[in-house]
Inverse folding.
C-alpha cells in the first residue's frame, strides 16, 4: 500500500545492530589472524605426541592436552587454518562453477539456457545433504572429495541466480549499445554483465560459508572429511567424544569455535545483504523462498 | 441533517517511528461529517489522505502511530459525538471500503458467509436470519443472483462485483459513517460511475455520513458536498464543494484543478504542477507549498494557520489567498 | 470437480518423475565415481583375480551402465534393494528393522522444533521491534551455526553424564527406556531444525498479518481469537504446510548426524556406518530412500497446499 513507507517496513525486521556487527567483524578478523599466524602462535607442534595425555588446562598447556598428549591450543589454531581454508574453497568453488555455467547459459540463451533451467529444477528438488554424504563416501575421504562434492551439489543456486541476472541485464540498453561499439561477446560479458550479477551471488556466498563450515565439520566428525590426524574442528570433537565425562572441554572448545565462526560470518552476511539491498538467503532458505513465493502452477 | 455531526476528527497527528525518532506525517488534521453528508478529501498520493482514514479507524500499520488529536463519534442518532479510543470505532459505527478489492477481501472466506458472520457478531441473530440478511445486503448492493453468489470466493468475482461485496461487508456493521479510500480508483469508468451511484444511494437511504478520499477531482466533484484539500500532511483548504472547486483560495487547489485536462475547458489550461511535495522529514511550520508556488510572499515563510475544518465554512491556510489578491 | 483434481494430482506426479529418475541415475552412477575397481573393493584386498571377476559378474558391473540402471530399477520394483556388503543381509530387511527408530526420531524432532520455533516466530512477527524479538533473532543465528553433533554431545554431557537423568546413548529394551533414549536426540534435532522454521514462520506470519484483507477484517470490528481463527489461520496454513515439508530435509540430515552421535539403531546411523566401512549398496539404497522420502514429502505438501487454497484452479 502506498501509505506504508519503506522506513516502516525495514523497521519490522530485527537486524543486527552496529555493536553485534563490530563484534562479529572483530571475532572473524581474530580467527583469520590466528589461522594465518598459527605456526608462530602455536606453543607446540600440533602433531607432536607426548606422554602428558589428557592434561587439564594449565600454564604449560592453556587448553590442556588430548588423548595422544598433543597440545589442544596448538591443534585448535591449526584446525582454524584447515577449516577456514576448506570453507573458503567449499563455498567459493561452487560459486565459481555456478557463475561460469550460469553466465554462459544466460548469455547464449536457447537450448543451453533451457537445459540449465531443467537441470537446476531437478537439482533443487534433490536432498542436498544426503547426497553430500553419499558423494564424499563414494569419492573416498579427503579434502579433494569434500570440495568436489560441495561443488557438484552447490553450483546450481549460483548458476540460476547469475543466469537470471545476465538475462535481465542483457536486455538493457547499454549492453546493446556496447554491441554497436563492436565489443566482443566475452568483453561484454565480463565488463558489463558479470559485475552487476555478481553482487547478488556474494550475499549467497556469505550464508553458504557458514553451511560449508558445518558440512566440513560434520563430515570430518564422521571420519568422512579430512584425513585422520589432520587438525580439524569437527574431527577434534569426534576424538574428544570418549572423554566427555572427565574432559568436557576437549569437545566444548572446538565446537564453540565453529559456532562463533559461523555466527560471525552470518552476522556479516546480513550486513552485506543490507548494503547490497538483497535478502540474505542460503541454499535452504533460498529454496524455501521460491516455494513460498510461487504457489506453483496450481494457482489460478 | 441533525444538529450534531456524526464524526469529528480534531487535531489528528500521526507519526512514523523510526530508530527512536518520530517523524510527523499528519499534522493537525480536523474535519467533521454530518448525517447524510459526504466529505471529499482530495490530494496527491503521499499527502496523507489514506493515512487520515486509517488513523480515524485506528488501523495504522505497525511503526506508525497516532501522537495527538481526538476522534469523536456520535454514539447514536442525534447524540453529540464523544471521544473514542483508537480501534474502538472500527465495526462499531465506523466502516471502511478500500481501494483494492482484490487484496482487501480474505481469499479463503466465502463472501456470503463472511457477511453473515459480521451480521451475527453485531446482532446475535440465528444463523438462518444472518444468512437471509447477508443475501439481502448482497442484493442491496446490486449483486445479481445473491443467493447463488453467497458461496462464491472473492477470486471468482469480477473487480466491480468484489467492490460491491466489500461495500455490503461494510454496511453489515450498520455504520453511521462510511470511510471510502479511493474505492473506485481500480475500476474502469463505467464501473466507477455505478459504484459511485451505489455509495451515494447508501448514503441517502441510510443517512450515512461519508468521507470519500480520492486523487480524482472529477470523482470528488460528483460525490462530495464538502471538500477538503490535503497537501503534505495538512488540510490546506476546506469548504462547500462548489466554493472550493470553482473558487479555490489556495494556489495549490488552483494548481490541482488546473492539472486536470478537461474536455469543456479552454485549450491550454492543463498545467502540471512543477516540482514535488516535500518529504515528511522536511515538514516545517511554514507553508509547505511555498517552493512550488508562483504567488509566495514573505509571510509564507512564517508559521501559516492550519485549517480548522470542524465547521463547513470555506477557508484556506494560504496567507496570500487568491481571493484577497 | 474430482476429475479435474485427479488430473491435477497426476500432473504433479508426472512433474516429480524426472526428479526421481535423476535421483535413481545419480544413485546408480555413484558407483562409477568410486576410485579404483568397485569389484576389487567389494571382494576385499585378499581376493584372487577369479573371485574379483565373479563378484563383478554377480553385481552386474561387467554390463553397460544402462543395463545396470535397468537391473536396479527392475530389482527395486520387486522391493529388492540389494544386499549389504558387510553382512550379506538384504537391505530391505535392514530398512524394515531400522526405519521405525528414524521415524520416531523425526517425529520427536518435529515436536521439539515446533515447540521452540512457534513462540520465537510469534514474538518476531507480532513484536518485531521488542528486545525479545532482537534476542530471538540473534539466538537463531547462533543456533543455526551450532553443529548438531556438538550440540548433542554437549547436551549429553550436561543432561545425561552429570545428572544421570537420561541415558547417554543406545536404545533401551522396553518402551520406557526407548522413550527416554529418544529425548536427547529429539532435542538435538529439534534445535538444529528450529531456526529455519522460526525465521520462515515469522516471515510468513508477518506476510499474513500485513495482508490487506486482515486490515479489512479489523475494519469490520474483528479482533482477537475470531480474527485469528477465521482469517489468519486459514491463510497461514498453506505456508505452514510448506514449511513443514521443507523442514523434512533439515530434520532428516539432523537424524543422520544425531543417530550416529547417540548410537541409535536408525537408518541414519546405518548410512554413516556403511559409508565409513565402504558398504556401497547400503549407502546407495539409503540415499535413494532418504531422497525419495524428501521428494515425496514435498509432493504431498504441494498437493495439500493446492487443496487448502480455494484459488487453486485444478489445471
Amino acid at each position: 500500500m502506498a501509505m506504508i513507507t519503506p522506513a516502516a517496513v525495514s523497521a519490522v525486521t530485527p537486524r543486527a545492530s552496529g555493536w553485534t556487527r563490530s563484534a562479529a567483524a572483530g571475532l572473524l578478523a581474530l580467527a583469520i589472524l590466528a589461522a594465518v599466524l598459527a605456526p608462530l602462535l602455536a606453543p607446540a607442534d600440533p602433531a607432536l605426541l607426548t606422554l602428558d595425555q589428557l592434561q587439564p588446562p594449565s600454564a604449560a598447556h592453556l587448553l590442556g592436552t588430548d588423548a595422544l598428549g598433543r597440545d589442544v591450543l596448538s591443534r585448535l589454531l591449526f584446525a582454524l587454518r584447515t577449516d577456514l581454508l576448506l570453507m573458503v574453497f567449499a563455498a567459493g568453488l561452487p560459486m565459481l562453477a555456478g557463475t561460469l555455467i550460469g553466465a554462459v547459459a544466460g548469455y547464449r540463451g536457447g537450448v543451453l539456457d533451457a537445459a540449465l533451467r531443467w537441470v537446476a529444477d531437478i537439482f533443487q528438488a534433490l536432498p542436498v545433504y544426503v547426497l553430500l554424504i553419499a558423494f564424499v563416501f563414494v569419492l573416498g575421504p579427503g579434502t579433494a572429495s569434500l570440495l568436489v562434492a560441495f561443488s557438484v551439489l552447490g553450483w546450481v543456486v549460483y548458476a540460476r541466480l547469475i543466469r537470471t541476472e545476465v538475462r535481465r541485464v542483457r536486455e538493457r540498453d547499454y549492453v546493446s549499445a556496447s554491441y554497436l561499439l563492436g565489443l566482443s561477446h566475452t568483453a561484454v560479458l565480463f565488463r558489463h554483465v558479470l559485475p552487476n550479477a555478481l553482487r547478488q551471488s556474494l550475499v549467497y556466498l556469505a550464508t553458504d560459508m557458514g553451511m560449508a563450515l558445518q558440512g566440513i565439520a560434520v563430515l570430518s566428525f564422521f571420519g568422512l572429511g579430512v584425513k585422520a590426524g589432520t587438525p580439524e574442528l569437527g574431527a577434534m570433537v569426534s576424538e574428544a567424544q570418549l572423554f566427555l565425562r572427565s574432559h568436557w572441554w576437549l569437545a566444548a572448545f572446538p565446537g564453540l569455535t565453529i559456532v562463533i565462526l559461523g555466527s560471525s560470518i552470518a552476522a556479516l552476511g546480513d550486513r552485506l545483504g543490507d548494503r547490497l539491498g538483497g535478502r540474505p538467503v542460503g541454499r535452504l532458505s533460498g529454496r524455501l523462498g521460491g516455494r513460498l513465493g510461487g504457489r506453483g502452477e496450481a494457482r489460478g | 441533517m441533525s444538529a450534531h455531526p456524526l464524526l469529528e476528527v480534531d487535531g489528528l497527528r500521526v507519526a512514523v517511528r523510526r530508530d527512536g525518532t518520530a517523524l510527523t506525517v499528519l499534522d493537525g488534521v480536523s474535519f467533521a461529517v454530518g448525517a447524510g453528508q459526504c466529505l471529499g478529501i482530495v490530494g496527491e498520493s503521499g499527502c496523507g489522505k489514506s493515512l487520515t482514514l486509517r488513523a480515524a479507524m485506528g488501523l495504522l500499520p505497525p511503526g506508525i502511530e497516532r501522537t495527538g488529536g481526538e476522534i469523536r463519534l456520535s454514539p447514536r442518532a442525534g447524540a453529540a459525538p464523544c471521544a473514542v479510543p483508537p480501534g474502538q470505532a472500527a465495526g462499531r459505527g465506523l466502516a471502511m471500503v478500500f481501494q483494492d478489492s482484490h487484496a482487501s477481501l480474505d481469499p479463503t472466506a466465502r463472501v456470503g458467509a463472511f457477511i453473515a458472520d459480521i451480521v451475527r457478531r453485531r446482532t446475535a441473530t440465528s444463523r438462518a436470519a444472518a444468512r437471509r440478511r447477508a443475501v439481502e445486503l448482497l442484493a442491496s448492493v446490486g449483486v445479481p443472483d445473491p443467493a447463488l453468489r453467497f458461496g462464491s470466493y472473492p477470486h471468482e468475482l469480477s473487480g466491480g462485483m468484489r467492490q460491491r461485496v466489500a461495500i455490503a461487508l461494510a454496511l453489515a456493521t450498520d455504520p453511521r459513517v462510511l470511510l471510502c479510500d479511493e474505492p473506485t480508483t481500480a475500476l474502469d469508468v463505467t464501473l466507477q460511475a455505478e459504484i459511485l451511484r451505489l455509495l451515494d444511494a447508501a448514503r441517502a437511504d441510510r443517512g450515512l455520513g461519508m468521507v470519500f478520499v480520492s486523487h480524482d477531482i472529477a470523482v470528488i466533484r460528483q460525490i462530495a458536498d464538502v471538500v477538503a484539500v490535503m497537501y503534505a500532511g495538512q488540510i490546506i483548504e476546506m469548504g462547500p464543494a462548489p466554493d472550493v472547486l470553482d473558487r479555490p483560495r489556495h494556489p495549490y487547489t488552483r494548481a490541482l484543478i488546473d492539472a486536470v485536462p478537461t474536455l469543456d475547458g479552454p485549450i491550454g489550461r492543463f498545467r502540471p504542477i512543477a516540482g514535488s511535495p516535500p518529504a515528511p522529514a522536511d515538514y516545517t511550520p511554514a507553508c509547505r507549498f511555498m517552493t512550488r508556488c508562483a504567488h509566495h510572499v514573505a509571510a509564507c515563510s512564517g508559521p501559516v494557520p492550519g485549517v480548522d475544518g470542524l465547521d463547513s465554512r470555506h477557508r484556506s491556510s494560504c496567507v496570500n489567498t487568491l481571493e484577497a489578491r | 470437480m474430482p476429475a479435474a483434481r485427479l488430473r491435477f494430482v497426476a500432473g504433479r506426479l508426472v512433474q516429480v518423475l524426472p526428479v526421481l529418475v535423476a535421483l535413481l541415475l545419480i544413485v546408480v552412477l555413484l558407483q562409477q565415481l568410486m576410485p579404483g575397481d568397485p569389484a576389487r573393493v567389494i571382494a576385499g584386498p585378499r581376493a584372487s583375480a577369479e573371485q574379483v571377476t565373479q563378484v563383478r559378474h554377480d553385481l552386474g558391473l561387467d554390463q553397460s551402465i544402462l543395463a545396470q540402471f535397468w537391473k536396479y530399477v527392475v530389482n527395486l520394483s520387486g522391493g529388492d534393494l540389494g544386499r549389504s556388503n558387510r553382512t550379506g543381509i538384504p537391505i530391505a530387511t535392514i530398512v524394515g528393522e531400522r526405519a521405525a527408530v528414524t521415524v520416531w526420531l523425526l517425529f520427536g524432532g518435529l515436536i521439539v522444533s515446533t515447540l521452540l520455533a512457534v513462540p520465537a516466530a510469534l514474538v518476531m512477527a507480532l513484536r518485531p521491534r521488542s528486545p525479545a524479538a532482537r534476542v530471538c533473532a540473534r539466538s537463531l543465528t547462533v543456533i543455526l551455526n551450532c553443529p548438531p553433533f556438538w550440540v548433542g554431545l554437549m547436551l549429553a554431557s550436561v543432561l545425561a553424564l552429570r545428572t544421570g537423568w537420561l541415558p547417554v546413548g543406545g536404545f533401551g529394551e522396553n518402551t520406557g527406556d526407548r522413550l527416554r533414549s529418544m529425548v536427547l536426540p529429539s532435542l538435538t534435532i529439534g534445535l538444529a531444525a528450529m531456526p529455519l522454521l522460526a525465521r520462515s514462520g515469522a516471515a510468513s506470519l508477518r506476510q499474513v498479518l500485513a495482508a490487506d484483507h486482515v486490515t479489512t477484517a479489523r475494519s469490520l470490528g474483528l479482533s482477537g481469537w475470531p480474527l485469528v481463527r477465521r482469517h489468519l489461520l486459514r491463510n497461514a496454513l498453506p505456508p505452514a504446510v510448506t514449511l513443514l515439508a521443507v523442514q523434512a530435509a533439515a530434520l532428516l540430515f539432523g537424524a543422520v548426524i544425531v543417530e550416529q552421535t547417540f548410537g541409535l539403531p536408525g537408518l541414519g546411523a546405518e548410512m554413516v556406518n556403511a559409508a565409513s566401512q565402504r558398504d556401497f549398496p547400503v549407502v546407495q539404497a539409503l540415499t535413494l530412500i532418504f531422497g525419495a522420502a524428501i521428494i515425496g514429502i514435498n509432493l504431498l505438501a504441494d498437493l495439500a497446499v493446492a487443496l487448502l487454497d480455494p484459488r487453486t484452479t485444478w489445471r
About this structure: Residues 189-206 of chain B form the longest helix (18 residues). The radius of gyration of chain B is 20 Å. The CA atoms of residues 250 and 318 of chain B lie 6 Å apart.
